[in-house]
Amino acid sequence: MREIADGNYIDSIKDGITLVDFYANWCMPCLRMQKQVEDFAESNPSVNVFKYDVDKGVSIWSNVQSEFQIRSIPFIVIYKDGEVATSAIGYKTAEQLQEILDNIQ
């Protein structure tokens, strides 16, 4: 699982299946979900998994907030070849993340 930011966001999501976890270090549900995202990433080596710190990134997070009408985090977006396949808000377990992925493949 790698960090993603405004500068490398577009290039990072353009190929294959990509999950982006929007989080903040002050967000308790985000911190609890970190292990779940890590477990999901380990179980899905063909999926690109990134974390996006909403306090460090401005441009992409502003666009995502507007597009999805997001008011809270954690928030995930799954892309397929650069196009939004699905999104989900709130704490998710690794199993729930897997179900979300399975429903788009």
How would you sum up this structure, described in words?
The structure is a single chain. The chain has a single domain, classed as Glutaredoxin, CATH 3.40.30.10. The model has no long low-confidence stretch (mean pLDDT 92). The radius of gyration is 12 Å and the shape is globular. Helix 2 (28-43) crosses helix 4. It starts with a strand and ends with a helix. The relative contact order is 0.24. A five-stranded mixed beta sheet has the order 1-3-2-4-5, covered by helices on one side. With 105 residues, the protein is of the alpha/beta class. Strand 2, helix 2 and strand 3 (48-53) form a beta-alpha-beta unit. The protein has helices at residues 9-13, 28-43, 59-68, 94-102, and strands spanning 2-3, 17-23, 48-53, 75-80, 83-89.
Report a brief summary of the structure.
The chain contains four helices and five strands.
What is the helical fraction, as a range of percent? 25-40%
Q: Per DSSP, what share of the residues sits in E-state strands of 2 or more residues?
A: 25-35%
Distance from first to last alpha carbon: 21 Å
Oligomerization state: single chain
Derived structural class: alpha/beta
| Largest sheet properties | 5 strands, mixed
Q: What is the domain tally?
A: 1
- Uncertain residue ranges: none
Read across the widest sheet, the strand sequence of neighbours is 1-3-2-4-5
Mean pLDDT, all residues: 92
Name given to the CATH architecture:
3-Layer(aba) Sandwich
Which topology does CATH recognise? Glutaredoxin
Assign an overall shape.
globular
Q: With helices defined by DSSP (H or I, 4 residues minimum), what is the helix count?
A: 4
State the CATH class: Alpha Beta
Alpha-carbon Rg, integer: 12 Å
The number of strands is 5
Order of helices and strands: EHEHEHEEH
CATH homologous superfamily identity: Glutaredoxin
